[in-house]
Amino acid sequence: MPIYAKPHLSLSDQVRHLSAQGLDCDPEASSIEALHDYGYYRLTAYTYPFRRLLLPSEPKDSAYQFRADDYLPGARLSEAAELARFDHGLRDKLFDGIAALELALRFQIAHVLGKRNPFGHTDQASLDGRACAEPAPHRVRARFASMFDFWIDEYGKLIDRAGGEDFIRHVRAKYQGEVPVWIAVETFDFGGLARLYSLLERYDQNLIARRFGMSDGRQFHQWLVGLGVIRNHCAHHNRLWNRQLPHALAKIPPLTVKPDLHHLSNVAHRRKLYGWISVLAYTLRNYDNTSNWFRTIKTQLGKFPASNFVSLSVDVGFPAGWDGESLWNGAPSATRTLPTPV
User: Fold this and answer.
1) What 8-state DSSP symbol labels residue 42?
2) φ, ψ (nearest 5 deg) of residue 51
């Protein structure tokens, strides 16, 4: 295996290198600015579809190489920069939407589990026995006998991480260290919320899921896991466009959701963004009938740059006519209807 020996290149040298491969880098000043703002490897990830596909007879440097080094006629670095700017806006809008879901989920878990037991998040008797007894994730199985044991350790870390907060110090000092679930959830990240949700009684899972328009609590948990991955990509400024996600969106039985989501049964690219954006829009619209997020994200998607090399359908998994679906149309209600009985 060869040792990596490519030299460091100045920004001007990077422009000359890309130009030699057939990428239009005019005007040079704008290309240098784009390379400065995004970095060579981040920006060239957006130019990758502009490169020529390797012929079957051509040699590959590795099993993961599918395109040649040279660019197709008409490929421009400025188009890649425009695509990167679109992706930046998409991450911002998605992060806002998932943040709204996270806050709603905090309340719902605290409200539903807290009614069963204020300390139900640390009491196995208040959770689903079968889920708690499941083996811990393989990477930590040697340390934890069960998912419940793994959760208790994770919960302790979340509380300790927030230990400097006055409200945690106060509750711990006054109540001998016990923290009720409606306070504890304020220390949870999205992954912690999804983990605790997975351990809830099936009745509690379904009750919470119905608040978001889904009658199957287990499938709602799958949505949370998939959206959690997207949230992390957003938080770390990773590319979302043209990304194959690790979790495929499972088929959704029509009886478990309202008709707004039925069109997902025909979506072919279930590891791409469209399906996941759709379930996020659906949950937010069902939870808060005044939510405008579905229109915000639709507006951002309308900014996808015109191109001969990339498209929403191929690269992000959007079906033809997606913007005509009922999920993306209509207007938010002027009057809020709370999803939880008062």
Assistant:
1) H
2) -90, 155
- DSSP-derived letter for residue 7 is P
- In whole angstroms, give the CA distance from residue 92 to residue 209: 25
Give the per-residue pLDDT at 2: 81
The Cα–Cα gap between 129 and 237 comes to 38
CA 270 – CA 252 distance, rounded (Å)? 12
Q: Report DSSP letters for 158-227, one per residue.
A: HHHHTTTSHHHHHHHHHTTT---HHHHGGG--HHHHHHHHHHS-HHHHHHHHHHTT-S-HHHHHHHHHHH
Q: What 3-state DSSP class applies to 55?
A: coil
> If we measure between CA atoms, which residue out of 217, 212, 223 comes closest to residue 249?
223
Other beta carbons within 10 angstroms of residue 246's beta carbon come to 9
Question: Could you tell me which residues come within 8 angstroms of residue 91 by beta carbon, excluding any fewer than 6 positions away?
Answer: 233, 234, 237, 240
Burial of 204 (0-12, 13-18, 19+ CB in 10 A): buried
Give the span between the Cα atoms of 216 and 243, in whole angstroms.
28
298-328 residues labelled b (16+ CB within 10 A) or e (exposed)? bebbeebeebebbebeebbbbbeebeebebb
Q: What is the predicted pLDDT for the residue at 77?
A: 97
Q: Which tokens hold the place of 87?
A: 């992706």
pLDDT score recorded for residue 129: 97
What gap in Å lies between CA 15 and CA 26, rounded to an integer?
Answer: 9
pTM for this entry: 0.94
User: Which of helix, strand or coil describes residue 335?
Assistant: coil
- Residues of the chain scoring pLDDT < 50: none
**What's the chain's length in residues?**
342
What CA–CA distance (Å, rounded) separates 287 from 338?
8
Residue with tokens 């379930």: 279
Strands (E), the chain: 51-53, 67-71
Burial class (CB in 10 A: 0-12, 13-18, 19+), 62: exposed
**Does residue 123 contact residue 110 with C-beta atoms inside 8 Å?**
no
